[in-house]
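If your schedule permits, I should be very grateful for your opinion on a structural question. I have a record of one protein: its chain in single-letter code and its fold written as discrete structure tokens. Would you kindly read the sequence against the tokens and tell me how you understand this chain to fold? Thank you for your consideration; the sequence and its tokens are set out here.


***
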Amino acid sequence: MVKPLNVPLVEAERHGPRRAVRTSRRTGDRRWPAVVAAGFVLAQLVLVRPGMGLGWDEAVYVSQVSGHAPAAFFSAPRARGISLLVAPIASWSSSTELLRIYLALLSGLGLFLALRAWRGLFPVRVVALGGALFATLWVTVFYGPEVMPNYWVAIGALAGVGCLLRAQADRSDRAALWGVGASTALLAWMRPTDAVWVTLPLFALLLCVRRWRRPRPLAALVVGLATGAVGWIVEAYVSFGGLSARLADASRIQGGLGWNIAVGDQLRSLRGQTLCRPCTGAIPGPELIAWWFALPLLAAIGLAVAVRSRRTTRTLLPLACATTASIPYLFMIGYAAPRFLLPFYALLAIPVADALTHLVTTARPAWRPVAVTLAALALAGHLAVQYAVLEDAVARSTAARRDWARTASELHRLGVRPPCVLTGSEALPIAFYAGCSSAQTHGHNASTTRADLLRTAQHTPTATLAAAEDDPPEHARDWPSHRFGDLRIHVSPSAGLIQH
């Protein structure tokens, strides 16, 4: 728990880090961050709904710790932090509802603790508004209860920057130092490569700015990152041929990291696509993307306000971390997913909230009601757009996952029951639903050879999934074939198929 600061708020650039922060004169109701976090939990339970099945990536992560399905192939870019986070539930229960409720509660707690890290750095009303802005984005509500690492990277980034600012402001604040270490460990535990991008400005500040050079915050940052990333690094040498080989493999799977402007891809994904690969189609209408362009404008206003108030670092540091966090996903990757930018949104939230508060409260008294009304209308419209997109994303995701569950039931009817093996189109998530192993002979998830697959099929129920209009793959040409929806299921004779 981060304790409140009691030192005067004076700009670090002028008077040094010890006196960089003071408690706001108008702290407001300190319960508001808790209210925001509770509202976030409620929104997840009501709008996303615990009954939504597990997605493709979720099936990979849950299968690593599940006692109800074999572990799926774990590719180079992935990290095991999110699997370990859900292990207390997934290791003994197959209930998706229980897992969703657990994650919704945990994500609300994480948001609350991340906002607590900013107490004393900004007025409570600004911190609470920033939390509300982040927590009401459709992508935040959607991924809060999902078994995906991106939300937790965002929480670690938000908490870590706040804790570092507090630790620099008050050298006796040991809780803030622990917060730096724990937050950066969470970052690296969930996605080590993202952790590097997020923390670049923190290292630059601690190493290059003389009055910020203090060994304990730097040590907390280094130890936190090392603690979180050590498992991923060890796994690189055990399973991927070394760290450089794993990074190269991860780059290949992601389409080859390099100069690639993906801003348009991210815009296309804002219509509610959870993955935009390949990312084609028209840019969504202005009502769906206006908020995205408003963010950098409001962030710039927030920075201008901070400069005028001589408290630049508190605003500049999260903006710098947001910028570096977004670089690989806006300029280095050939596809898009809205979840990739969750750390970017989280780090922008408080500076944007500060800008909005300033615009409303500094208006002339006669114009203040007008400013408040316009801001309220803009936020209401923003929420309407966010939840319209959320509803569509939930509906489409739920339908796709129900299709996987129905296919799994059909496989069981055809005699493909555990222990069993699936290969082919969408085999990985369907295998999880069916309780089977998944195997591929080519592609990013290649884990076997055609010869090994045929040997396995002689004694283990095996099925190959293909698009209904496609010819069967060579290894399954002599297997019984069945049409099911848009798929054709080719079942090995070892499944003991009953002909109808």
